[in-house]
Design goal:
Length: 330
């Protein structure tokens, strides 16, 4: 069974409801239909019901098994506005402003998750990442002990000796250009949780650098060393080591030579990059040169399951992200 097949099996068992704010977008409609056909989730399309039904008819998309939530006419809109006002009162959000904020599809979707009408939300194929993240951070907040949301990719290689049978998680590849040592430690912990939640694998986390165990000296190396120390302090049970070069983290013979006795070197299945530059470039090189399948981006560190789509996402990409969100929702 492939990695995405395994995630989809978990999604089927979870029986979650996933809000899709871009309810009239062609790819979203087709992905919702596919998600129902594969019995992955119950999709909830947001928007004007007449517009959604009309667009679905134009595209030949069957809406059986799909819920439609008309944002303007919903019987729960007043309740959501009251709750939003309560949550954001310290920011000056009264009922009138809350009603206006709920005109934003992503804010409305996040409030459905917050109030328990949906288990997860997937959005972003027609809007920037910031438009998805902003309401999620304002309303759902981050997990306890986590100050930054980060973005991970599950990378699947045909080289079965890498990671766990070819499976490795890369982070942060999508969100934070610069991280402090504490934030980098939080990314490591979030990434370990993501691998465990999605695939049930025991994480072995490598904190990457251009240095292995003191082979080079630089401020950016010291940041990785400090992040590793902090991650151990925050989560003493985490199997983590650093600083490690990528080859020392992944290749058994190199790990044994460069970092003898390390619990991670040569067998890492989570790679935490020292910066977004490195992480984003690294996953794309692994994908394009190395032929890896890249599953993501997967947002991690939020108090609930919200995932952002690339604006170039295909229908298959969206179906996969919906399945991931369902599993993240638990």
């Amino acid at each position: 069974m492939g990695v995405m097949d395994a995630i989809k099996e978990k999604a089927r068992a979870a029986k979650r409801r996933v809000a899709l704010p871009e309810g009239t977008e062609e790819r979203i409609l087709k992905a919702a239909q596919a998600a129902v056909a594969e019995r992955l989730v119950t999709p909830i399309l947001l928007g004007d019901e007449n517009a959604i039904r009309g667009r679905a008819a134009e595209l030949g998309v069957a809406l059986a098994g799909i819920e439609i939530h008309d944002m303007a006419r919903s019987p729960v809109r007043e309740k959501l506005a009251a709750k939003l006002s309560e949550l954001r009162r310290d920011k000056g959000v009264d009922i009138a402003r809350a009603q206006r904020l709920l005109d934003d599809k992503n804010c409305y979707g996040v409030m459905l998750v917050k109030d328990g009408h949906a288990d997860a939300m997937v959005s972003g194929c027609t809007c920037p990442t910031a438009d998805v993240l902003r309401p999620a951070l304002q309303i759902l907040k981050t997990e306890p002990g986590v100050s930054r949301v980060s973005g991970a990719f599950v990378m699947v290689s045909e080289r079965k000796e890498l990671g766990d049978d070819g499976i490795t998680l890369f982070a942060d590849c999508a969100v934070n250009p610069v991280l402090t040592p504490r934030e980098l430690a939080e990314v490591a912990i979030s990434s370990a949780r993501t691998l465990k939640r999605l695939l049930g694998l025991e994480p072995r986390v490598a904190m990457l650098s251009f240095s292995t165990k003191g082979s080079a000296s630089h401020d950016v190396v010291e940041k990785v060393i400090e992040a590793t120390r902090l991650a151990r302090e925050i989560d003493p049970g985490l199997i983590i080591d650093g600083e490690l070069q990528a080859d020392a983290a992944l290749i058994a013979a190199v790990g044994a030579k460069k970092a003898p006795g390390s619990p991670v070197a040569g067998r890492a299945n989570v790679l935490v990059f020292p910066s977004l530059d490195a992480g984003n470039i690294g996953y794309k090189i692994a994908q394009r040169f190395g032929g890896c399948e890249a599953i993501g981006p997967i947002l991690q560190g939020l108090n609930a399951a919200v995932n952002d789509l690339s604006r170039g996402a295909t229908v298959a990409d969206i179906v996969g992200t919906i399945a991931v969100a369902a599993v993240q929702a638990g």
